[in-house]
Amino acid sequence: MKISSIGAPVALFAAAALTLSACAANETANPGTGASGTAAASTLAGKGASSMSAAQQKWIADYQAAHSGVTINYSPDGSGAGREAFISGAVQYAGSDRPFKDEELGKDKFGECTAESNALNLPIYVSPIAVIFNVDGVEELKLDPDTLAGIFAGTITKWNDPKIAATNDGVTLPDASITAVHRSDDSGTTNNFTDYLNQAAPKVWTEAASDTFPTAFGGEAAKGTSAVVDAVTTGKNTIGYADASAAKDLGHAQLKVGEQWLSPTAEAAAKIVDDSEVLPGRAEHDLALKLNRVSKDAYPAVLVSYALVCEIYKDANDAALVKGFIGYAASAEGQKAAAEAAGSAPLSSTMSAKVAAAIDSIK
Questions:
Q1: How do residues 295-347 score in pLDDT, each as one tens digit?
Q2: φ/ψ of residue 280, rounded to 5
Q3: Cα(220)–Cα(183) distance, integer angstroms
Q4: Looking at residue 285, what is its pLDDT?
Q5: Do 320 and 200 share a domain, yes or no?
Q6: Are 309 and 322 in contact (CB under 8 A)?
Q7: Which domain holds residue 313?
């Protein structure tokens, strides 16, 4: 199945260290900087998930156009790089395709936060992970969980394998070796994809969810979302995984959920968030989710990207900037803008209200 409408917003995505910024325009004052309505120039720095690069571009352009004196830079170097930068204090917020784990949390750990502050994980971007393919003569592809897991585990190595043929009646599959492309870097997309494989095909994919792809399974490695997409596009008889917003005009496999075959659409992806629960033992406004990958009618290979922020910032101006910008990204207007720019799934009204309350609590 070919889906082209969500690829265009990331035509410039291939830059390895893209820094997102737009000229400040005119209208409103820098939020939280005093009653006078004027403010010195302020800069907000973020780093992290490449999956939401298109959404970040749109949010930044919109927010800067409405807030003179504000400059926002976001470097899409990957979720792992974002978490490291936030911990070190190199940025005021980070983007990550997975929340901080319990063992990664703790007070006096995060550079821009006060000693008594922890980090909050706030979901702001929901998107399907497309299983992308480029196979000679194949326009549509259906893969059940065990078969998909076998392909990436390296136990299914030919495109005309009987297990692939069994779910693709009428499709002429080539007698060709499969090149399975995975991320080489520390990736939240990989974490979400391997979490899906583990939940949906535990007998085949016996590895737990991980930010790093198991190298023992072989395949071709590529650094970053754009490199995976490029490797699948320019390779022969390839398959990979990437945020749907970056998947361009490649084939997108349909995944089996129960007796249904679901495509990576925003509508199918959105259902999984409200069917999932917040991780137990977290702070009141920490919204880290344990995604339910076997939720009925929901496309299962989904990533939720989080804004990682401080409960309490050392600098009150940083707190105001983060509350203003992340508040816009999570708002109905910001979610609509991201959906139009990146094909993401807007947060539900229920989740939006929870995120808004969490943002209001930032100090």
A1: 777 899 999 999 999 999 999 999 999 999 999 999 999 999 999 999 899 99
A2: -70, 155
A3: 8
A4: 96
A5: no
A6: yes
A7: 8-127+276-291+305-361
